[in-house]
Amino acid sequence: MRFNLPIAFLFSLLILLNACAPAIENVPGVSLELAEFRKKVISDLSYNLELSIPEDAQEPIPGTISIQFQLAENKVELPLDFRETADKLHSLTINGQETSIIFEHEHILLPKELLQKGSNSVSIEFTAGETSLNRNPEFLYTLFVPDRARTCFPLFDQPNLKATYELTLELPSSWNALSNAPLLSKVEKGTIATWEFGTSDLMSSYLFSFVAGEFEMVTRNVYGVEMTMLHRETDQEKVDRNLDDIFDLHKASLDWLEEYTGIDHPFQKFDFALIPSFQYGGMEHTGAIQYRASSLFLDESPSQSQLLSRASLIAHETAHMWFGNLVTMDWFNDVWTKEVFANFMAAKIMNPNFPEINHDLNFLVRHYPRAYSVDRTEGANPIRQHLPNLNEAGTMYGAIIYNKAPVMMRQLELLVGEEAFQQGVQEYLETFANANATWPELIDILDRKTDSDLKTWSEVWVNTPGRPHFEIRTSTQVIEVIQTDPSKTNRVWPQLFAVNVLQGEVNQDYEIISSSKISGTQTMSTLSEYDFESIISNSNGIGYGLFEAKISDFEIWNNLDEVAKGSLLINIYENLLEGNIDPKTYFEQLKQIIQTEENQLLLNLALGHIGTIYWDAFLPEERDAHSVEMEALTWHLMMEQTEASRKRMFFSTWQSIVLSQKGLEQLHSIWNKTTTVPALPLSENDYIGMAATLSIKAPEMFEEITFAQLANIENPDRKRRFEFLIPALSNDQQARDEFFESLKDEQNREIESWVLSGLRYLHHPLRENESEKYILSSLELLQEIQQTGDIFFPAGWMSATLGNYSSDSAVETVRRFFTEHPDYNYQLSLKILQSADMLFRMNKIQNQIAIN
Fold it and tell me: Measured between alpha carbons, how far is residue 351 from residues 21, 265, 315, 345, 604 in Å?
């Protein structure tokens, strides 16, 4: 059927339809729909921000911002993000015309009538929001990942609208400051100094940052690269002891990354600030990395694990300059792409810096246990997840993206080939430099460099949660490795790994290519079924999953290499959690291992398993039965060590498990310095830790210990922290109740690392009966915690709450919470289930022990 309409009518209809272009639904946060629309219409974005920051942390911060951008169309209102209250917005000028402010659902709505196709300028006077300013009495620092810049000032807060930033800060004249761009000028006028920074490099809003306060500033030129560091450490010996290593490790990481990527460091400068009680290990702000101070300023005689952790952290944050900052994910559902590259590259960077370390073992013990801690749970999430709104982007973070993803990436590199993989990475960086990319776009590049079907491979590894289970079957001359999917959805995780076979005194690794439910069978002409003395699964530590393991495998411990030993410890522990291994039997085996094992990475792993079994798997009466023997053993092993770092490892374990009167008296005498441990230097942090331990385990001494310890703390930041924690350490139940109640006020949760320490003290295993009542309230607070806290806080909150419980009643509290909240937020449900995994498993283990 054909309609014959006048041309003029058709033209008018088109104009009307164009004028009535549908508006984007205005909802809180930054929806995917809004982000996609703004990405389509906004370009050439820049910000000029001015803030006047008073010395008094209670006074407000006035600010102005000027935003310049190109607009492809002005058919609808344009939302500008600001997650604050309307009273903090004072004036709005659009293209030279002052206008009234329309503020709805965390957005300033810019009227389409005042906008224009092409160049636009928006200026706003406001009072800064403080959710992510982290204001302290003598300093502040911003932390805007993933969508928190909008809690401070108005902007388009999404990762795929990269912009340049110009920043001017008015500060107390005694303060120092650091931001993404170089300092252009500093002008002092009386008690105020104006810091003007230059134009930053192009970057995403979550990478914009500044630090200001009473900081020491150290600038060094390290083989041609100038770096500036801010810090607040008062122990000058500690500073001097660590300074060379900190700067040298940064330079080594830069050199390695420039060589691997073929791209020179892509930004104007490379500085960093060390923050007391920082929420994360580090944050990769372009040109102004932030670190937790204690992660880089190590105490005297650090363990090998601490040295490796510091070097890995520095390498991780440095790698982000290329992976995350130069090339940024398009949307936060792919935040894991920057994290997997940073961790994967950090592992590679470590090799030349620590030639004496077994790096395959280090990769195994750093990544696999943490990845399994989530992937085995009822709340396991895939590496790549769906994200409808940036206000839930913080829930994307966790052990899966930081630890399973690097395991996946190593398997991908093995599949593609190391050289082709590097070429693909270089092409990826060159193609998307100063722009945004998605995981499928990277896979497209790598797919062209291999005959393997990477899209199908990625579908299981990246887009689904969980891990495979492996069973070994043997018959004459044949080893058969069976892969099964515990979810019974017939998935297969293609991967490479090895099994170690012992015949007589001969060990041999056989490579397994597990690309089907039943892997390629391995035929060994020299072996028969009855010659298999032992088979160690995943002996090269590359495979990922739950591998069959038995206590009898320890009979050949001394025949195994270091990686196979590490893999065996992890496999046994995972089988223990599955109910396949008796914890008491494993505990006895671990006692033997720690007496002879020389490798610090393996020793640290074994000591960690001892602590978990001691506190979580044993019933209280079993723990008491083992305490005196374990105290004596760990004390003896500590005293016989000649290397200070190994002595410190045993001291930490001894301090953790000590319960007897004699042991507590020994600890008290070390704390009050009437006894010294030969060749074990102790720091202010060590004495604070001992004071906390004694307050919980010897509650009658609480007041004496905390009063004396507080008086002895010299560093002002550590003193403030200890003052905050004293109520959580108290021997008075009412004081602890009041501390927990105080956490319901957002202002009392501002320094999240302090809060998590306080929760761990409240929920210490010795206080389970008194503290289990806090579990339900903690669950009920979680949504608020997610809305007001930083990205790791919700998981940390639940882990600190649930991590040490095993009772039927605690399990019932968690299960009932889900029953009573059937429509509870999906992502937060996963966080609860992940944190409750040890509760559920230890409850089953203890119930089984009680039955037997």
Answer: 57, 20, 11, 10, 20
The Cα–Cα gap between 107 and 760 comes to 38
Strand pairing category for 522-523 and 478-484: antiparallel
Determine contact, residues 357/817, Cβ cutoff 8 Å. no
Q: Where are the alpha helices (DSSP H) in 417-541?
A: 418-432, 439-447, 454-463
**Per-residue pLDDT tens over the stretch 211-242:** 999 999 999 999 999 999 999 999 999 999 99
Report pLDDT for 774.
98
Q: Rounded distance, CA 77 to CA 786, Å?
A: 29
Q: Which residue type sits at 756?
A: L
Q: Tell whether pTM > 0.90.
A: yes
Q: What angle do CA 487, 492, 495 make, to 5 degrees?
A: 130
Please write the tens of the pLDDT for every residue from 261-299: 999 999 999 999 999 999 999 999 999 999 999 999 999
Predicted confidence band of residue 409 (pLDDT cuts 50, 70, 90)? very high
* Beta strand segments in 142-300, E: 163-172, 176-179, 183-189, 192-197, 210-213, 216-222, 225-231, 271-275, 282-283, 288-292
Distance CA 837, CA 532 (A): 36
Rounded-to-integer distance, Cα 265 and Cα 267, Å: 6
Under the banding of pLDDT at 50, 70 and 90, the label for residue 619 is: very high
Task: Select from 444, 291, 293, 306 the least CA-distant residue to 362.
Answer: 306
Is pLDDT of 10 > 90?
no
Strand 522-523 versus strand 62-71 pairing type: unpaired
The closest alpha carbon to 622, from 845, 357, 293, belongs to 845
DSSP string for residues in 90-149: EEEEETTEEE---EETTEEEE-TTT--SEEEEEEEEEE---TTT---SSEEE---TTTTG
Task: Please choose, from the candidates 778, 771, 761, 832, the residue with its C-alpha nearest in 3D space to the C-alpha of residue 805.
Answer: 771
The residue-averaged pLDDT of 780-804 equals 97
Most distant CA pair in the chain: distance in Å?
Answer: 103
State in Å, rounded, how far the first CA of the chain is from the last one. 83
Cβ-Cβ contacts under 8 Å for 591 (sequence gap 6 or more): 610, 630, 633
Average pLDDT over residues 200-213: 98
